[in-house]
Specification:
CATH architecture of the domain at 299-523: 3-Layer(aba) Sandwich
Strand content: 15-25%
CATH class of the domain at 299-523: Alpha Beta
Number of helices: 19
Radius of gyration: 25 Å
Helix content: 25-40%
CATH superfamily of the domain at 299-523: Glycoside hydrolase family 3 C-terminal domain
Length: 686
């Protein structure tokens, strides 16, 4: 049979991996691919159409690479594990902490990656990872995770169900960790009972791939099997079709020892080659086979990379100092991110066609720009403080560019602290004492405690920039100067530094317990430094209801009866909001993101989530004095909660729909009747 090299990466652009080979030198054909912002920043745009556009470019470029023998057709993206704990080293690879947001994001992303929702031929094969309940790096190959059935159903599994049922993803990756004592890649409950039997991941071309060496880990360090041959057999029998590693080389021994069968081998082999048929490996359609180097890093892709970064940049503080003039002069640029190039790509990145640092743009567009790094990302060295202070003293404006990078957060390790690392805050404090306009640009995917910056009146503005990708410098400049006014919203909660104290990262419970004040904005009972969904603008908006449901009381039994087969996907209500740009000091046209939250104080058993996101939409380029409409569709499933068995119910009670963090608009409604089940979490057989 024809050989094929599996394992390609494309988290935010075609990326270096076993299957992807970038050519040399830079500028040669297939030497680079468009490098978009990391998912955490793209997700901050809350713009599903933008997500699909980015994914379409990524898959187009991937197919072009594949056509010329420099890549394969299976891609191990997206990472859709929810960002439960702020210390997780891979949180920047994800869309954030909210289930509904991740589900909406991934459907748009896979739509773009695979060339549609279950098209006749995939453009590329997308892989949803890491199934399931994977969000800890330290000890990851041997961790035994024990989430409750309730949290599995409400938080750790819904995005994978959306991958399979709604996005029709081609592939799923099983995780390193064990769930309730069984390694995920050897867990027939996860891979067969839930994934294939319940969710319907059973097309001939649907396959499961292990994370790298996860099959070997079934033997060591999990010690769930007593040999590699046994680990390979257990994984194959459970439903892991493809092993990233060498453990399946032991399958001949497994068959000889009657641990598995040739029939099981044939089943997985058929799935894998059927997937290659589905992606057109043997007979690609002309629309895909014609793609080449001219389709990589086009001018449209370059513009999209800029817009994706600018769209997610999030303004966290501003006293009117921003936006800056595009023709500013006499500016001090300080900080370890100012000269960033590859830093801007984060992890799982490929070779970018170009990398535009923030400093290079400031020096090109502003006059008399002085640069001193001043501080490192994570160091106590103060040798360059004096030079930084001197440069700032002789300038009229100060821009500090710092935060964290992949030396602090990355695959393979988790953070122990969520404070600003090193002595960066010390330098910022000294800069603030000069009394000059001071703007801080905070980079990195994970949040750090900004309390000192928010409480310091001499820090005038704070902008979060994530990992902005190949055109990060221009994107940051354009947001700072109002050419691309900020409209991003934080897709994660920013906690106080003390949040990690006596807070066991291995405790998967979301609800407050054992002295832990809850996890994610839905359950956190403390006061966040900056809440999930927060983001400021340069202009002011006025909001009003244009259209709301005609009834404020609904009977649960009637709703469920009329919902059809996929009850959770039925539309419960549609709301329309008028968004008017009423201007302000900057008086700029601007995008506006509307986030719609649901809450109840009496529906279902306590404890109840504080609130949860049920819909979002983004209005584009709303002109001063103009009004645009946002439409919010709320599904019936958004009203449901899981019980202790993981079965999801719609409960009677009083509910409030509130728009945005400030709850600018509210709508109250009631559900009456008996609690009604709309889905079941399959039970494990004993």
């Amino acid at each position: 049979m024809v050989s094929y090299q599996w394992q390609n990466e494309a988290l935010h652009g075609v990326a270096g991996s076993t299957g992807v080979q970038f050519q040399l030198p830079l500028g040669a054909e297939f030497s680079a691919a468009t490098s978009f912002p990391m998912p955490i920043l793209l997700a901050a745009a809350f713009d599903d159409a933008l997500v699909k556009s980015v994914a379409t470019v990524i898959s187009t470029e991937a197919r072009a690479f594949a056509n010329h023998g420099f890549a394969g057709l299976d891609y191990w993206t997206p990472n859709i594990n929810p960002y439960r704990d702020p210390r997780w080293g891979r949180g920047m690879e994800t869309p954030g902490e909210d289930v509904y947001h991740i589900q909406s994001y991934l459907v748009s992303l896979i739509d773009g990656l695979q060339g549609g929702i279950d098209p006749e031929v995939y453009r590329i094969i997308s892989t949803c990872k890491h199934y399931a309940a994977y969000d800890i790096e330290n000890g990851r190959t041997g961790n035994n995770i024990q989430p409750s059935a309730q949290d599995l159903s409400d938080y750790y599994l819904p995005m994978f169900e959306s991958c399979v049922r709604d996005a029709k993803v081609g592939s799923v990756m099983c995780a390193y960790n064990a769930v309730d004592g069984i390694p995920a890649c050897a867990d027939s409950y996860l891979l067969q009972t839930i994934l294939r039997d319940y969710w319907g991941f059973n097309e001939s071309y649907n396959y499961v791939v292990s994370d790298c060496d996860a099959v070997e880990n079934v033997y060591d360090p999990h010690h769930y099997a007593d040999s590699l041959a046994a680990a390979a057999a257990l994984s194959l029998n459970a439903g892991t079709d493809l092993d990233c590693g060498s453990s399946y080389n032991s399958l001949n021994d497994s068959v000889a020892s009657n641990l598995t069968t040739e029939a099981a081998l044939d089943k997985s082999l058929i799935r894998l080659y059927s997937a290659l048929v589905k992606v057109g490996f043997f007979d690609p359609p002309a629309e895909y086979s014609s793609l080449g180097w001219s389709d990589v890093n086009t001018t449209q892709a370059q513009s999209l990379a800029h817009d994706a970064a600018a769209g997610g940049l999030t303004l966290l503080k501003n006293d009117g100092t921003l936006p800056f003039s595009p023709s500013l002069s006499n500016v001090a640029i300080i900080g370890p991110w100012a000269q960033a190039t590859t830093q801007m790509q984060g992890n799982y990145a490929g070779t970018a066609p170009f990398l535009v640092s923030p400093l290079s743009v400031f020096q090109r567009k502003w006059r008399n720009v002085k640069f001193v790094q001043g501080a490192d990302i994570n160091s106590e060295n103060t040798d360059r403080f004096a030079a930084a202070i001197s440069a700032a003293q002789s300038s009229d404006y100060i821009v500090y560019m710092g935060g964290i990078d992949t030396s602090v957060e990355n695959e393979g390790f988790d953070r122990s602290s969520i404070s600003w690392p090193g002595n960066q805050l010390d330098l910022i404090s000294q800069l603030s004492n000069l009394g000059k306009p001071l703007v801080v640009v905070q980079f990195g995917g994970g949040q750090v405690d900004d309390s000192a910056l928010l409480q310091n009146d001499k820090v005038n503005s704070l902008l979060w920039a994530g990992y902005p990708g190949q055109d990060g410098g221009n994107a940051v400049f354009d947001v700072l100067t109002g050419a691309s006014p900020p409209a991003g919203r934080l897709p994660i909660t920013q906690y106080p530094a003390s949040y990690v104290n006596n807070n066991n990262i291995y405790d998967m419970s979301l609800r407050p317990s054992s002295g832990v004040p809850g996890r994610t904005y839905m359950w956190y009972t403390g006061t966040p430094v900056i809440p999930f969904g927060y983001g400021l603008h340069y202009t002011n908006f006025s909001l009003s209801w244009r259209s709301t449901p005609g009834t404020v009381t609904s009977d649960i039994a009637t709703l469920v009866e009329n919902a059809g087969q996929s009850k959770d996907r039925a539309v419960f209500a549609t709301l329309v909001v008028d968004v008017s740009n009423v201007g302000g000091k900057a008086n700029l046209a601007s995008d506006y993101v509307g986030l719609l939250f649901l809450s109840s104080t009496n529906a279902g058993p306590a404890p109840r989530p504080i609130k949860q996101l049920v819909s979002y939409a983004r209005a584009k380029n709303v002109q001063v004095g103009s009004t645009e409409q946002l439409t919010f569709n709320i599904s019936l499933g958004a009203l449901a909660r899981a019980d202790n068995n993981g079965d999801r119910y719609i409960y009677p009670g009083n509910f409030t729909l509130a728009l945005d963090i400030a709850q600018d608009l509210k709508l109250n409604f009631s559900l009456t009747g008996q609690a009604t089940q709309i889905s079941t979490l399959p039970r494990q057989s004993n």
